[in-house]
Design brief:
The chain has four helices and no strands. The chain is mostly helical. The model has no long low-confidence stretch (mean pLDDT 91).
Length: 78
């Protein structure tokens, strides 16, 4: 899963079902690809992971909504 590790390490233990966790991982990967965050050392990966997790804890769990809102949160300050 290449870029999935950072988000898994930041997910609170037991906060998400396995299915929800997979949605978060795939959304994280999609957002990183969309923003061309390719480097494993890029600190933006942690920012993306944090935003995806934050949104999911707020109830945004649909893949499209999660991706759209994560992209918005990550890019609004750039």
């Amino acid at each position: 899963m290449g870029i999935a590790l950072p988000i898994r390490t930041l997910m609170p233990e037991g906060a998400f079902t396995p299915e929800e966790a997979e949605v978060l991982v795939s959304t994280y990967e999609r957002v990183c690809r969309t923003l061309s965050i390719d480097s494993a050392d890029d600190p933006l990966r942690t920012v993306v992971a944090s935003k995806v997790i934050f949104l999911a804890t707020q109830g945004v769990i649909g893949p499209e909504d999660l991706c759209f809102n994560a992209l918005k949160l990550v890019t609004e300050n750039f």
